[in-house]
Specification:
By secondary structure, the chain is mainly alpha-helical. The chain is built from nine helices and four strands. It has one domain. The strands form two sheets. It has a two-stranded antiparallel sheet with strand order 1-2.
Length: 238
C-alpha cells in the first residue's frame, strides 16, 4: 500500500516503523499519566517502560527469526524498518521482564499491569496499520467487495492478488478492545481485571483473524498432531 512514509534524501522512513513508534509513545505517555495517579515515580515508570519495551522488541524479533530463518545477510537479522516482529514473542519475553522489574521497584503488581493492558491494544492497533502499509501479516485470497490488492514493489504481500485485509480486521478489533478496556479500567472490580479482559479478549479475536491470514510460512501449532488445523498464533491464543 504505502510501505515508505517519507524519503529524506535517500533515507527512507518506513510506515511500519513510524506506526510502531506512535504506538510506543501512546503506551509510554498513558503509563506515565496513570502511574502518577497511583503514586508511581515517573523515573521508575520510565525505566520499566524502556527495559520492558527493549526486551519485548528483542523477543518479538527472535520469534520471527525462528519462524523465518532464511536471510541474505546479518543486517537482515536486525533490520526492523520493514517489519519482522511477532507479537506473541513480545508477550513471551516482555511480560516476564516487566513483572520482574515491577517487583524490583516495589510497584503494585496487578494495578501496574492494568495500566499497560489498557494501552496495549490501541498501540497494537497502530502497529497493525503499519503492517497494512508494509503488506506484512497479509490475508488469504479473497474476491469480496472489500478485498485489497498490493501493487507496490516493496510490499511484503503477494502482488496483484486480491486478499483479505486481515491487518485492518485486527486493527479494528484492537481499537474496539481498547475502547472497552478504558471502561473496564475506570470501573474495574479488582486489580488485574483489565489485564485479564485484555488477554482473553485479544486471544479470542486473534484466533478468529488467523482464520483469514495468508502468510502460512509462520508455521502451524503441533503439526505432527493437528496437521494444518491451527496456525502457530491460533495455538498460542487458545
Amino acid at each position: 500500500m504505502h510501505p515508505i512514509l517519507v524519503d529524506l534524501n535517500g533515507f527512507a522512513i518506513h510506515t511500519y516503523g513510524a506506526m510502531g513508534a506512535l504506538g510506543f509513545l501512546f503506551t509510554a505517555f498513558t503509563a506515565l499519566w496513570r502511574g502518577r495517579k497511583l503514586g508511581i515515580a515517573a523515573e521508575r515508570m520510565a525505566d520499566l517502560i524502556f527495559w520492558s519495551a527493549l526486551i519485548a522488541l528483542v523477543g518479538s524479533r527472535i520469534v520471527f527469526l525462528v519462524q523465518n530463518p532464511v536471510f541474505s545477510s546479518p543486517w537482515d537479522w536486525v533490520n526492523l524498518r520493514t517489519g519482522g516482529l511477532v507479537f506473541y514473542g513480545a508477550i513471551l519475553f516482555g511480560v516476564p521482564a516487566g513483572s520482574l522489574l515491577i517487583r524490583r521497584y516495589g510497584m503494585p503488581f496487578f494495578a501496574t499491569w492494568d495500566i499497560f493492558a489498557a494501552a496495549f491494544p490501541i498501540a497494537h492497533g497502530f502497529a497493525r496499520l503499519g503492517c497494512f502499509a508494509a503488506g506484512c501479516c497479509y490475508g488469504s485470497p479473497f474476491d469480496g467487495p472489500w478485498a485489497v490488492t498490493f501493487t507496490d514493489p516493496k510490499s511484503v504481500a503477494p502482488h496483484d492478488v486480491a486478499l483479505h485485509p486481515t491487518q485492518l480486521y485486527e486493527a479494528g478489533f484492537l481499537f474496539a478492545l481498547g475502547a472497552v478496556l478504558q471502561v473496564v479500567y475506570a470501573k474495574k472490580p479488582f486489580h488485574g481485571s483489565v489485564m485479564l479482559v485484555y488477554l482473553l479478549g485479544y486471544a479470542a479475536g486473534r484466533a478468529v483473524v488467523e482464520m483469514y491470514r495468508g502468510d502460512a510460512s509462520r508455521g502451524y501449532f503441533l503439526p505432527e498432531v493437528l496437521g494444518s488445523l491451527l496456525s502457530y498464533s491460533q495455538g498460542i491464543s487458545l
